[in-house]
Design goal:
Elements (H helix, E strand, L loop, with lengths): L1 H10 L2 E2 H10 L28 H16 L6 E6 L5 H13 L5 E6 L3 H10 L4 E3 L12 E6 L8 E6 L2 E9 L5 E8 L2 H4 L10 E4 L3 H6 L6 E10 L1 H4 L10 E4 L2 E3 L10 E3 L2 E2 H10 L3 E7 H16 L5 H14 L8 E8 L16
Parallel strand pairs: 2-3, 2-5, 3-4, 5-10, 10-14
Antiparallel strand pairs: 1-7, 6-7, 6-9, 7-8, 10-16, 11-12, 11-13, 15-16
Bound molecules: S-adenosylmethionine.
């Protein structure tokens, strides 16, 4: 906080993406640079990964099916972004080993923060860990790129409707050195794109960093799977959503003031899945799936659910509870969506209706 204040005194008001980059990813004091512990019961929020290993084991079934569809190449890769403490990587690797589908696999984690990379290395010693996908050699190996709750953690702009049009908000200090919002001026046209103008005071977010984030991943031939909370554009930028989707999380409590304690709280906003679909198309990919997590996981779990029939042992009970949390619409099942795209594959089949992504 002190360094951010210092910077604003020196440079003047800063953009909200710059504020978020410091608050979440400052290598020394950013929220995500702290030793892992943000996710789970003792942290600030739960993710599907923190419900237990079932999520990763079900994803392993999906990845194994794709590997079979590609005629089981002798060498292949999984590339995970935002791997946190490495739990999902470990669960997917164990799941693939149980299915006998891990031969020739290199598991790569993309982790820009060195102290988090060290924790991942301890948890998943077999994984390769690199700071960004651009440092991986692009070769013909088929790759399955994935990330759970990563896109919602990428920095975003905050914009607000005024009688004169959209304006962009940044951050400055008041006379008591508290962080406050600051009108930076008219929002650039390439940020607003085709957004309609809502009534004055309507505040929302635009994440313009996704295409740049995806660019290096899009060089690999294979699949890209992102699981996150968000909406297609008409639901995201709806006239009734007057305060946007920005949320903060601390000790499992959601709030809406991101300026309160930079570095100490999680700051996030939903994913605009229409913008994601457009970014994927602009990078040469084809969207093949967009569906609620409940439907995706239930389909994957079918054979396993049959195996569970009649079992009452503690392991089975634990998995059933996790499955209910992951798929129940009141828990994670409807809030999270699964978005999958194909890059450089011949005739990839479309798995779900995706027209509602392209209003
Ligand atoms: C909400 S956490 C999700 C953690 C984990 N995937 C899970 O589901 O429990 C978001 C993670 O994305 C990571 N992240 C954000 N930007 C990233 C980037 N450019 N490359 C790799 N990881 C990134 C953050 O450091 C953080 O660990």
């Amino acid at each position: 906080m002190d360094r951010l204040r210092e910077r604003i005194r020196r440079e003047g008001p800063i953009s909200f993406p710059d504020y978020l980059t410091a608050a979440l990813y400052d290598p020394a004091d950013g929220y995500y640079a702290r030793p892992a512990g943000q996710v789970g019961r003792g942290g600030d929020f739960y993710t599907s990964v923190s419900t237990g290993s079932l999520f990763g084991r079900l994803l392993a079934r999906h990845i194994a099916a794709w590997h079979r569809e590609c005629d089981s190449p002798a060498r292949w890769r999984i590339i995970e972004a935002g791997a946190n403490d490495g739990s999902l990587a470990a669960d997917i690797l164990n799941g693939l080993a149980d299915l006998g589908a891990d031969a020739g696999l290199e598991y790569v984690i993309i982790e820009p923060l060195p102290q988090i990379a060290a924790a991942q290395c301890a948890k998943v010693p077999s994984a390769s860990i690199v700071p960004d996908p651009g440092s991986l050699a692009v070769d013909p190996l088929p790759a399955f790129v994935l990330g759970n709750e990563v896109l919602d953690a990428l920095p975003f702009h905050v914009i607000e409707t005024t009688p004169d049009g959209w304006q962009e908000l940044g951050v400055t200090l008041d006379d008591r050195d508290r962080f406050i919002w600051h009108a930076l001026g008219p929002a650039p046209a390439d940020l607003i794109h085709d957004l309609p103008l809502f009534s004055p005071g309507y505040r929302t977010e635009v994440r313009s960093s996704v295409a740049a984030f995806l660019k290096s991943f899009a060089l690999f031939r294979g699949r890209m799977l992102w699981i996150d909370y968000g909406y297609p554009r008409p639901d995201y930028y709806h006239a009734s959503r007057t305060t946007g989707t920005l949320r903060t999380f601390s000790r499992h409590r959601a709030a809406e003031d991101p300026l309160e304690a930079p570095g100490e709280i999680d700051i996030t906003a939903h994913v605009d899945f229409t913008a994601l679909a457009r970014d994927v198309a602009s990078l040469g990919g084809k969207v093949i799936r967009f569906e609620p997590q409940s439907r995706f996981l239930t389909e994957l779990a079918r054979p396993w659910l049959l195996e569970l029939e009649g079992r009452t042992d503690p392991d089975a009970r634990k998995d059933i509870l996790a499955f209910q949390t992951l798929t129940h619409p009141g828990h994670l099942g409807a809030r999270f969506h699964v978005f999958e795209a194909s890059f450089g594959e011949n005739q990839p089949p479309c798995r779900t209706a995706i027209t509602h992504l392209f209003p």
